[in-house]
Specification:
The protein has 243 residues and is an all-alpha fold. 71% of the residues lie in helices and 0% in strands. The chain has helices at 7-21, 27-33, 39-66, 70-84, 92-102, 107-112, 118-133, 136-141, 149-163, 173-196, 200-228. α3 packs antiparallel against α4 (70-84), α3 (39-66) packs antiparallel against α11 (200-228) and α7 packs antiparallel against α11. The radius of gyration is 18 Å and the shape is globular.
Length: 243
């Protein structure tokens, strides 16, 4: 990309990239939302996804620590509140633990992350490292997968409630808040990226950052599919569902 895109053209490129590479296209999600997984496979998804959820505040805190812009810090710190809550027992991480509780997983085991797949750990840790080490513009851009989150959340909630008798609305409460939080966060990040990416090189870096984040999400589902669906090779030490 050698020509400078207009802000609208950059947004169009970002949305096109998400339409092509966001993890809603992964076959594991079709199985999850379509009721094709058993309880143990859903447990494996929730357990591994917890590791991702637990590292999001670390990623956001790292971004906040790197910016000297008070407006950006004020806006971004809401993400910490969303995930960690204002008090013990609040926030998205606590709601995700309510999901794993509802699926019958021991909370101490979930929090310990002992059963997490190695590929999940590597992918998530790579995302945190990306935000710590790359430019602030790239760090902000990597969060833009939230542009595409509301659709997959709506499909997930509807599909899981319709297809699994061991899931109820209370178990899936985490996703209710994300239907408003994700669009709010994505709109702010998108405006920031469109404003601050002022050269072709910066715009290319923004697109690459979103592509990287899509790869992080896709890699986690690849790991789940390989370990728990087909051919079913669970790595040593990882969670083994009770059949």
């Amino acid at each position: 990309m050698s020509a400078l895109l207009s802000p609208a053209e950059l947004e169009e490129r970002l949305r096109q990239l998400g339409a092509e590479r966001y993890h809603d296209r992964h076959p594991f999600h079709a199985l999850l939302h379509g009721g094709k997984l058993d309880r143990g496979q859903v447990q494996a998804w929730a357990l591994n996804r917890y590791y991702y959820q637990s590292r999001i505040p670390l990623k956001d805190a790292a971004l906040i620590a790197r910016t000297e812009d008070p407006a950006l810090r004020r806006e971004w710190r809401q993400r910490l509140v969303d995930h960690d809550g204002d008090a013990p027992g609040g926030g998205g991480i606590a709601r995700w633990l309510a999901l794993t509780d509802g699926l019958g997983l021991e909370r101490d085991y979930v929090v310990s992350a002992k059963g997490v797949l190695p590929a999940t750990r590597f992918a998530v840790d790579a995302y945190v490292r990306f935000v710590r080490e790359n430019s602030l513009l790239e760090a902000v851009a990597s969060s833009l997968t939230e542009l595409f989150a509301p659709t997959i959340i709506a499909d997930r909630v509807a599909g899981m409630l319709a297809n699994y008798d061991f899931i109820d609305a209370r178990t899936l409460a985490y996703f209710n808040a994300r239907l408003t939080q994700a669009p709010r966060d994505a709109d702010f990040a998108l405006d920031c990226v469109k404003r601050e990416a002022r050269t072709p090189e910066q715009q290319q870096a923004v697109l690459a950052a979103l592509s990287f984040k899509c790869d992080v999400l896709w890699a986690q589902l690849d790991a789940l599919y390989h370990a728990y669906v087909a051919p079913g090779h669970v790595p040593p030490g990882a969670f083994v569902p009770q059949r």
